Amino acid sequence: MGLLRLRSCCCDALSPDMLNGGDLPPIQFNEKEDFGALAECNMIGSCNADPSGRMCVSIACCRVPKNTADWDRILRFGLVQLDKICDNDYSLVYFHHGYEKLNKPTWKWLVTCYRSFDRKFKKNIKAFYIVHPSTKLKMVFRFMKPLVSIRAHSKIVYCQRLSELAQYVMLDRLDIPLEVRAHDKNLRARSVDNMTNTTGLGNYGKSDIPAFSIQPGFMRVFGGTLSDTDEVPQVVTDCIQYLSLPKNLREEGLFRRCGNASELKVIKECYNTGQNIELSNYCPHTIAAALKTYLRELSTPLLTFEAYPTVSSWSDFAEDKQKALCKKLLENIPPVHYSCLRLLILFLNKVISSSSQNLMTSQNLAIVIGPNLTWSRHTITTLSDINNINSFTQFLIDSPQMFDRESDHDIGSSLQSASTVTS
Q1: Is the dihedral of CA 247, 252, 257, 262 positive or negative?
Q2: Helix (H) or strand (E) holding 46
Q3: Half-sphere exposure of 231 (CA within 13 A, CB side)
Q4: CB atoms within 10 A of CB 281
Q5: Of 11, 173, 219, 229, which has the highest C-beta tally within 10 A?
Q6: Would you state the torsion angle of the CA atoms of residues 118, 120, 126, 127, taken in this order, to the nearest 10 degrees?
Q7: What is the Cα–Cα distance from 300 to 319, expressed in whole angstroms?
């Protein structure tokens, strides 16, 4: 009977006439509104947890204020957060655990929420992960299926366990409430086959990545560490040489657009197993994604963990102090990190020189590259932190003179050799 009543409510509240018009206008938001305690409850967060380099917005139902939930205000807060990142690809993660009668929204609010997410918010959302979904929640989305586009509905991914979510996002960078972790642990304990040790559940943040057959004596590339020498890793050199071809530099949305996921997997496997690979067989967007993925999966970030406090608070420093601070930071990172970073920044400087064709300015590049250069060892990276990281990255891209040019000959010749190849 409960499900029949739910179906009746869905049909009445989510009718095409209600969704396309009716008397429920979309919510208007103001980015200057003070959300106070609502922002402090951490119900909505954002971080760089998506392996594809996209920003990831998380919503925790268990953190919604009980009894006093102002859903219109919550929606405005959510829209303000999304408005800051929706110009680029992003993913949504919704933790359903904690949903109860004391904090559930009305059907009319759900319709208002649907209508408030206009094309600006919808066009760049690439995935909507729903964690620990209930049967009723699945039915709601099932009834909505005829009312929304096939493309939009195909972006919904149900994750019954955190282990399933780990296949899509890096859990160690995601702000997962303790209540959600405890609920997931209880679900696993009740599971008949008890999936312990099959998908890395003991370590939140380790994806269920299949083990590759690595040649003896060959060190893993993706997910590994930079070498102890000052040599730039082969994968970085290969990707940058290929992307430096004139025709690739002109590719619109370079580093912003997503590559082919299956091709990216093949590229990673080839480098991880020491197999030969011809990057010219792949599109520039996939190679750009491979470069971002390599940087993001390093066990120690390119800018190192020690640089994170400075970079994540970059806007706190006066502009006349930033140059000296940046110089000191670069002097303190290991030689191979410095060499790799220098090559990357010099290359990105070449990318923006073709911005009239590829539409990628230093600011645009900083947004998609910055979160892959540094992150915290222990804390969750917030949207404010990411904005500072992006500002620092843009400063680097716009200031290639920050790097020591005396030893740039080899790097410059690598870029030059690729640029002289016929496009």
Answers
A1: negative
A2: strand 44-47
A3: 6
A4: 10
A5: 173
A6: -40
A7: 28
